[in-house]
Amino acid sequence: MKNKTHLKPVVYEQEKIEFDLDQLRKVFSCIGTFATVDVQKCFVSKMKFHFPFKRTNVTNFLVEAKNSCGQGVPNVADRITVEIHYHGKPHLTESATIKDTGYGQYEVSYTPRVCGVHTLSVLVAGKPIPGSPFKMIAQLRDYTKMETQNCHLITQYGGKKFQTPHDVAITTNDDIVIVDSSTRDVVMLSKNLKLIKTFGHGNGDGKLKEPEGVAVGHNVIAVSEWSDHVVKKFTLQGDYLSKFGSHGSGDGQFRYPQGLTFNNKGLLYEVDSGNCRVQVFDDSNKFTFKFGSKGSDSGQFQGPRCIAVDSSYQVYVTDWTASGGIVVFSEDGHFIKKISCYKPYIICLTPDDHIITRVNSCLTVFDPDYQLIAQFGTKGHKQGQFEITTGVTVNSAGTIFISEGGNARLQIITD
Residue 138: how many CA atoms within 13 Å on its side-chain side? Predict the structure, then answer.
């Protein structure tokens, strides 16, 4: 009889498992809510708040849809809405494409139609997510990379030399308009820098004596006359239209008018430097209102010089004093803010709402949030240097044009 092998029973020790009750409660609380979006837990990622504007460039970012436990919620693309608004252009509408990339992430993409400041409202289930609306800036160019080798100089037109080019403006076709206070010419150059025509020189009612500032509106060119204390208007073809103003301090009168600009509604804003104020006129030259006065309080000036308007109709006035800076007003002349900078003179607002001015012989750029982002150039006579800059403007491609009275030239900074 064979011996039977006796197997010993194996006894396993019981493993003690401890549970975190708070974690368990959290896990069980998520059961049944996985597909429910909690708007307050949603957010955007990979969003570029500043990006270069090209008409074919697509910008994109992610919307992260989360439930109350912070987990991604899939299959809710149809519940995400993105609304795009362009500052100062309420007639423009834009649509965005929303793509479900999985794990509760949704890629939003769109192509900006215009450069400048616009806002994106991101809604989930009809409610804005935290941080919405988001401010975006489609930039025409990288203002931090203005280089000397990208500068070009124009010293004459039609065989005639500039003497004291005092201001410069751009038409809607990107033609360039310069006034020279010494030659008394209004000079029009094409976007290719070819002479189109000159006008204004001579004697008579439709001629210029000492042109100071120039602005281009809808089919009209306005020129301020420093010593005659008037503003004269011409067609884009150079034909004389009208003049208004006289010497004095009453409504519609001037003491040494300087910078002027049109807004997109056709209102003309004129810096009445001798009276330390801005006067506003409609398209029939009728005085509508004024703002500013001499002083150092908010909304007052010591030495106002030049003026510009942004896409939201805000008005910017340079106060050419050590304590002046750039004074910002609403469309109807209510004080908003003063941007501190030393003795700014020239000013323009770019199509992407950046501010360009001159500080200490440097071309100086502020972003739409009034933050200093770039300075370029020094005092001198070479390319990329400046001497008594008297006017500045930017065309639709981001090319910058600076009139220099001290160097008797037009300097052009390309991208």
Answer: 25
Q: Are strands 304-309 and 59-64 parallel, antiparallel or unpaired?
A: unpaired
Per-residue pLDDT at 332 exceeds 60: yes
**Count of Cβ atoms closer than 10 Å to residue 163 Cβ:** 14
Domain spans of the chain? 21-139, 143-413
Residues 96-135 pLDDT 10s? 899 999 888 999 998 888 888 888 899 998 899 999 999 8
Query: For residue 238, with 0-12 CB atoms within 10 Å meaning exposed, 13-18 middle and 19 or more buried, which class applies?
Result: middle
Instruction: Assign domain 21-139 one CATH number from 2.70.70.10, 3.30.465.60, 2.40.50.140, 2.60.40.10.
Output: 2.60.40.10
| Residue 59 and residue 112 in contact, taking contact as beta carbons nearer than 8 Å | yes
User: What is the rounded CA–CA span in Å between residue 144 and residue 373?
Assistant: 7
Superfamily of 143-413 according to CATH: TolB, C-terminal domain (2.120.10.30)
